């Protein structure tokens, strides 16, 4: 049995709350004999385990209706882990005030405090090292198009 990723994406969108509080960060389908469907969800307020379970049940019901109840697959609905890169522009909003580590498309790397999120990019107050001190530069716009990877820097201080 082959699960159609495009069709699964449609079913997943139909399984999400209509208020737009949750959005899909990633959808993968493994190419195994018993495919594994992995859905990563996020929201501006984060995603709880109850919400993941509810979406999982809704999506499983739709997959069973589409492919038959004998369809053999594994379904995992999850939220992005703290170590996962930010993939959707909507994910940045709840991280305002936190430190980010960026890899840019031109190969450079930046780190700093996320000051604000705008339609075209983020305002990042870059932290640079000068001799033995750290200096925070004024916030500057980093366009989403130039961000290859962005991760929240986890601090235990």
Structural features, described:
The chain is built from two helices and nine strands, in the order αββαβββββββ. It has 157 residues and is an alpha+beta fold. The strands form two sheets. Strands 4, 5, 6, 7, 8 and 9 form a six-stranded antiparallel sheet that branches. A three-stranded mixed sheet has the order 1-2-3, with helices on one face. It is elongated. The protein has helices at residues 5-15, 49-67; strands spanning 22-29, 36-43, 74-78, 99-104, 109-117, 121-130, 133-136, 140-143, 147-152. Strand 4 (99-104) and strand 5 form a beta hairpin.
Distance between the termini: 50 Å
User: In sequence order, what are the helices and strands, one letter per element?
Assistant: HEEHEEEEEEE
What is the CA-based Rg, rounded?
A: 19 Å
Share of β-strand residues: 35-45%
Question: How much helical structure, as a percent, in the residues?
Answer: 10-25%
Class inferred from helices and paired strands: alpha+beta
Oligomer: single chain
Features:
single chain, 157 residues, alpha+beta, 6-stranded antiparallel beta sheet, 2 helices, 9 strands
Concise structural overview:
It contains two helices and nine strands. It is 19% helix and 38% strand.
Describe the secondary structure blueprint for this structure.
Layout: H1 5-15, E1 22-29, E2 36-43, H2 49-67, E3 74-78, E4 99-104, E5 109-117, E6 121-130, E7 133-136, E8 140-143, E9 147-152
Parallel strand pairs: 2-3
Antiparallel strand pairs: 1-2, 4-5, 4-9, 5-6, 6-7, 6-8
């Amino acid at each position: 049995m082959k699960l159609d990723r495009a069709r699964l994406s449609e079913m997943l969108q139909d399984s999400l709350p209509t208020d737009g509080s949750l959005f899909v960060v990633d959808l993968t389908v493994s190419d195994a004999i018993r495919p594994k469907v992995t859905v990563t969800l996020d929201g501006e307020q984060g995603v709880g385990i109850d919400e993941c379970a509810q979406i999982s049940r809704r999506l499983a019901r739709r997959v069973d209706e589409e492919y038959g109840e004998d369809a053999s697959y594994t379904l995992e609905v999850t939220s992005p882990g703290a170590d996962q890169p930010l993939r959707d522009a909507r994910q940045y909003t709840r991280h305002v005030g936190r430190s980010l580590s960026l890899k840019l498309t031109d190969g450079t790397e930046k780190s700093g405090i996320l000051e604000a999120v705008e339609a075209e990019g983020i305002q990042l107050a870059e932290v640079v090292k000068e001799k033995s001190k750290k200096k925070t530069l004024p916030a500057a716009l980093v366009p989403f198009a130039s961000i290859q990877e962005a991760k929240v820097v986890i601090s235990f201080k």
